[in-house]
């Protein structure tokens, strides 16, 4: 593909609302740690302004719900190890879903993410009551983030996890197709990360190396049957008959990794090509379970979904 010049990537940025929420979260954890299931009411009292007062009221109701559930968990007296493990998985899933929701510009996520991190921090506690709080709170806010994501989804969505090397399509908030894939070779030809969209579709298409012979990235012409383009610098989702290594986690590190595109198994590509429409959002996200801010910092496309000046293809 020809190299196209675009302005540099815009990263997620630090949002003042999230910063404030995280400060409150730290204070609340301190209150929880100091007083068992107690929440310091002066920390969650209604601030000035109707909107902020409503937020504080909601936070108080959430904390009360968490305390009730935590009391039930802790009251049994048995080990919470299995609940801790399940909540830790919820934490990872919710962080990943929060990235997708953020890049879909869904409202209300900052508060849910702050609550998730506040209670998720307690999952490592050796105190039975604090651990119960962590499990109960993580459950509540992970479910809320999932609900926000599903509620705000467009009619169609393509989400690609770099960590899991997995592509998932959603229609009206429901999973439609899930398939293992292979993305761009890390770190030199990694697939761009961030919110993009389907630009066009071609079938068939000849992949022609944008690099000259002699370049370590050069490859001979390769025909693909279907390609769904999502950047104007040569990144698309396509079949790859030449790939012999397995698709899935770790394949972006091997010899079969792409030059920035997303290799999709033929049957899955056939379904994807028929289903995807020009304009369908494509969210490529790290998916490594790190905090929301950590994953947002890995964004490499600008506000219009354009990668920085670079070359990709096949």
Please characterize this protein's 3D structure:
With 314 residues, the protein is an alpha+beta fold. It has two domains: 16-152, no CATH class; 156-296, L,D-transpeptidase catalytic domain-like (Beta Barrel), CATH 2.40.440.10. Helix content is 39%, strand content 14%. A hairpin with a 6-residue loop joins β8 (227-229) and β9. The model is unreliable at 1-47 (pLDDT under 50).
- The count of DSSP E runs of length 2 or more, i.e. the number of strands, is 11
Number of domains: 2
Which strand order do you get reading across the main beta sheet?
3-2-1-11-4
Regions with little confidence, pLDDT below 50 for 5+ residues: 1-47
The SSE order reads HHHHHHEEEEEEEEEEHEH
Q: What is the terminal-to-terminal distance?
A: 9 Å
CATH homologous superfamily annotation of the largest domain = L,D-transpeptidase catalytic domain-like
The major sheet is characterized as:
5 strands, mixed
What features would you highlight for this structure?
single chain; L,D-transpeptidase catalytic domain-like; 5-stranded mixed β-sheet; alpha+beta; 314 residues; 2 domains
What is this entry, summarized?
This protein is 39% helix and 14% strand. By secondary structure, it is α+β, with helices and mostly antiparallel strands.
How is this fold's topology laid out?
Layout: H1 16-34, H2 41-44, H3 50-75, H4 81-103, H5 109-120, H6 128-152, E1 156-161, E2 166-171, E3 174-180, E4 194-197, E5 200-202, E6 205-207, E7 222-224, E8 227-229, E9 236-238, E10 262-263, H7 266-275, E11 281-285, H8 292-296
Helix pairs in contact: 1-5, 3-6, 4-5, 4-6, 5-6
């Amino acid at each position: 593909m020809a190299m196209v010049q675009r302005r540099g990537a815009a990263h997620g940025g630090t949002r003042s609302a999230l910063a404030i929420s995280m400060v409150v979260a730290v204070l609340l954890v301190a209150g929880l740690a100091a007083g068992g299931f107690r929440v310091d009411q002066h920390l969650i009292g209604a601030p000035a302004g109707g909107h902020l007062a409503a937020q504080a009221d909601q936070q108080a109701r959430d904390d009360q719900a968490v305390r009730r559930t935590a009391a039930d968990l802790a009251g049994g007296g048995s080990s919470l190890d299995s609940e801790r493990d399940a909540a830790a998985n919820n934490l990872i899933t919710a962080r990943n879903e929060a990235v997708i929701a953020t890049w879909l510009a869904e409202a209300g996520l900052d508060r849910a993410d702050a609550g998730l991190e506040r209670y998720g921090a307690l999952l490592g506690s050796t105190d039975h009551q604090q651990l119960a709080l962590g499990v109960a709170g993580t459950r509540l806010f992970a479910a809320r983030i999932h609900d926000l994501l599903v509620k705000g989804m467009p009619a169609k969505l393509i989400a690609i996890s770099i960590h899991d090397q997995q592509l998932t399509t959603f229609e009206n908030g429901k999973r439609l197709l899930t398939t293992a894939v292979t993305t761009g070779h890390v770190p030199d030809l990694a697939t761009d990360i961030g919110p993009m969209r389907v630009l066009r579709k071609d079938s068939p298409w000849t992949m022609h190396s944008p690099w000259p012979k002699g370049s370590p990235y050069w490859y001979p012409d390769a025909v693909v049957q279907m390609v769904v383009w999502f950047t104007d610098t040569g990144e698309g989702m396509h079949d790859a008959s030449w790939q012999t290594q397995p698709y899935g986690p770790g394949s972006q590190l091997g010899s079969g990794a792409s030059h920035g595109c997303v290799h999709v198994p033929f049957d899955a590509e056939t379904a994807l090509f028929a289903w995807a429409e020009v304009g369908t959002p494509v969210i490529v996200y790290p998916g490594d379970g790190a905090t929301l801010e950590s994953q947002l910092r890995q964004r490499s496309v600008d506000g219009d979904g354009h990668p920085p000046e670079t070359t990709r293809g096949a």
